[in-house]
């Protein structure tokens, strides 16, 4: 029988099994392991190829009353997007590329800015348990690993509004990417960082269970980052804090200072040479050196 993905599209056996080090994910197995009565995750779909899981899920949410807890996973993305609409690509089945729909109705919209940081904590926690690899967070949305003695980006997070009451959060993680497949020299992967496990099925389950746990804590606390433990945990795992950084801000402005805190609004606080502490809510952060 010709293998089919969860969307019903057929793929040739040669395409689907062309790289035996990168077996395909199974929607059925993931649903069996993640979807449960009273849990957050209601549906897990795996498609072989799409442009962007975030774009697809935002569109689906706009078309109808799509419930919270839908997960869309792609084996390959042709138009994957990061922050500031930056494009990136990776070989099929070399990573985890997925988006989730959340509807945090109990949480004031002013606190929704914590969701990308919450997702970073959940991803780092889940991968630590499931992959046995140390990770760190670069504010606001990057996952870092150490390859040799170099700090490299192995993943990223993108949050987008979906209507008035929803947020779609996309996650991309390089899992088995090899050195000759790196899109840029400063990129990394779990495999290159010496992960004990690169089987994507348990890695995805571990990340989604961790996300369910942290989202539940945060939501029960009304989105309060201190009461939920999120603010303290994020700060403990954030590689940006304690470093001299350059914040590249909207309007072609930049700000240099030591990253000293993440405040209650999720902003990065920089102590500048002028003796002023300035919060940064949006922008690219360049790590310069340890403070």
Keyphrases for this structure?
291 residues, alpha+beta, seven-stranded mixed beta sheet, globular, ligase, aa-tRNA-synth_II/BPL/LPL, BPL_LPL_catalytic, ligase activity, EC 6.3.4.15
What does this structure look like?
With 291 residues, the chain is of the alpha+beta class. It is 24% helix and 29% strand. It contains six helices and 14 strands. The strands form three sheets. A seven-stranded mixed β-sheet has the order 1-2-5-9-8-7-6, sandwiched between helices. Helix 4 crosses helix 5 and helix 4 crosses helix 6 (230-237). The radius of gyration is 19 Å and the shape is globular. 43% of the residues are buried. Mean pLDDT is 91; it is low at 1-14. One of its GO terms (molecular function) is ligase activity. Its EC number is 6.3.4.15. This is biotin--[biotin carboxyl-carrier protein] ligase. Residues 29-219 form the BPL/LPL catalytic domain.
Short description:
It comes from Streptomyces hyderabadensis. With 291 residues, the protein is α+β, with helices and mostly antiparallel strands. It has helices at 13-16, 27-34, 53-63, 115-131, 200-220, 230-237; strands spanning 43-47, 70-74, 80-81, 87-88, 95-102, 136-138, 142-147, 150-161, 167-174, 243-249, 253-262, 268-271, 277-280, 284-290.
């Amino acid at each position: 029988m010709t293998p089919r993905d969860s969307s019903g599209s057929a793929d040739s056996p040669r395409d689907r099994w062309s790289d035996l080090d990168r077996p395909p994910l199974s929607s059925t197995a993931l649903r069996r392991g993640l979807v449960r009565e009273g849990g957050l995750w209601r549906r897990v779909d795996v498609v072989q190829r799409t442009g962007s899981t975030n774009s697809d899920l935002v569109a689906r949410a706009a078309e109808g009353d799509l419930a919270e807890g839908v997960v869309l996973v792609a084996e390959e993305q042709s138009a994957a997007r990061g922050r500031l609409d930056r494009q990136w690509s990776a070989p099929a089945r070399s990573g985890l590329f997925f988006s989730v729909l959340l509807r945090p109705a109990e949480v004031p919209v002013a606190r929704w800015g914590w969701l990308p940081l919450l997702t970073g904590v959940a991803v780092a926690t889940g991968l630590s348990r499931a992959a046995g690899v140390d990770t760190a967070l670069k504010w606001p949305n990057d996952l870092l690993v150490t390859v040799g003695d170099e700090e490299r980006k192995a993943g990223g997070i993108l949050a987008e509004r979906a209507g008035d009451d929803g947020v779609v959060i996309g996650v991309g993680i390089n899992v088995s990417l090899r050195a000759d497949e790196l899109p840029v020299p400063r990129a990394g992967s779990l495999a290159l960082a010496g992960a004990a496990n690169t089987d994507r099925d348990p890695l995805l389950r571990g990340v989604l269970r961790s996300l369910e746990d942290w989202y539940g804590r945060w939501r029960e606390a009304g989105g309060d980052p201190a009461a939920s433990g999120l603010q303290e945990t994020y700060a403990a795992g954030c590689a940006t804090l304690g470093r001299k950084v350059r914040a590249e801000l909207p309007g072609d402005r930049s700000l240099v200072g030591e990253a000293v805190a993440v405040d209650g609004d999720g902003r990065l606080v920089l102590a500048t040479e002028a003796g002023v502490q300035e919060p940064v809510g949006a922008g690219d952060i360049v790590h310069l050196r340890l403070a």
